[in-house]
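Weekly puzzle thread! Below is a chain. First person to post its structure in token form gets bragging rights.
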Amino acid sequence: MTSLLLIFWIAAGTIHLGVPLAYFGVMKRIGSRRGYNLAIGSERQPTISIIIPTYNEATVIKEKLSNISLSDYPSDRIDVIVVDSGSTDNTADLARDFFAQNRLRGQVVEEKERSGKSGALNIGLKHALGELVCISDAECKWDRQALGNAARYLSDPTVGSVSGVHHIPSSNETMAGNVEGSYRSIYRMLRITESKLHSTPVGEGEIQVFRRQDQTGFDPNVGGDDTCAALCMIEKGFRAISAEDVVFFDPAPPAWGIRFTQKIRRGQHVLQAFLKHKRLLSGKNVFSRLIFPMEFFIYAINPIIFPIFIILTGWVMITNLLVAALVAIGTVIVAAVPSLRTAASTYLSNNITMLAAIIQESRGNKQLVWTKIDANRRGQQALDAPMIPQ
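Winning reply:
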């Protein structure tokens, strides 16, 4: 019985820990040696419609629009569509005032009733006249060259979606911020390498750019509009990439409770998009045979193995003193080394939040409309960087 238990524990650990670690290791090695293999033009600058869905964003909307106006991309090639979903503050008026007082061309479209982010994006699409469409959240900021760099990637006809990568501001010194930074560092590498191989299935709503003719709408029944849109492009035969020179700035959650709330919702939305596009698992390219199956495993299957592995670990420790001693020594070492402690905290928090997301989704609470996190907006105002490098 003890030997059988030990075998089950080793098998569970190999699957739960070994498979994702092997994938991360292989991706890191590939990413350092490989380019995107794209034919990118640099001269033409297509018109771009930028859609910003808002709900009570009075604290950040003027900074957001100012950030866009400071972009290197020519202002006469940009128009901004703020879709306000029934804000009870003066978000819409502040946006109108900014457009009236500055050179940035834009309009405000108001929803009478809040329908969710995808619904707001669909309204924005109806008003989008640009050759390219960019979606962006109100609380994030972009590097000065981000929009132009994203547009250049779409000069390659094989690319259908371009997202960016997080830059984590140096002002965040909380443990929750450090864990979020560790998470973003790992997944930044993963998204870039997957993009170099073919595509990454996870889009970033802070900045995501498409050709208007290819982006026909967002599914209102899926919360992960960015990921769902990326997967739609892959289904159409395009590549969906995260580009390492399309950089955005987004404050990390300042506290554990806020981080869990945000990560559960975002994890749930990724699950919704993955399940909708699960037919991509049957394809024959590297995305369908390697990238998407591994991401599906990491998001949808491995978190379910997590409690099984934890229970087996405890059981084995009770029945095997040698294993108990080794686990205890390992725990002390991890707790004593800051980098290992952060990595362990990232592992635990990610598995717990994704397990909670799976449970939430199974209960039918899709969180298509949610309560925004004001602390993240306050964090945005406090960032010490110049948000756009000079």
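Puzzle host: Confirmed. Bonus trivia for everyone else. The domain at 1-390 is CATH 3.90.550.10 (Spore Coat Polysaccharide Biosynthesis Protein SpsA; Chain A).
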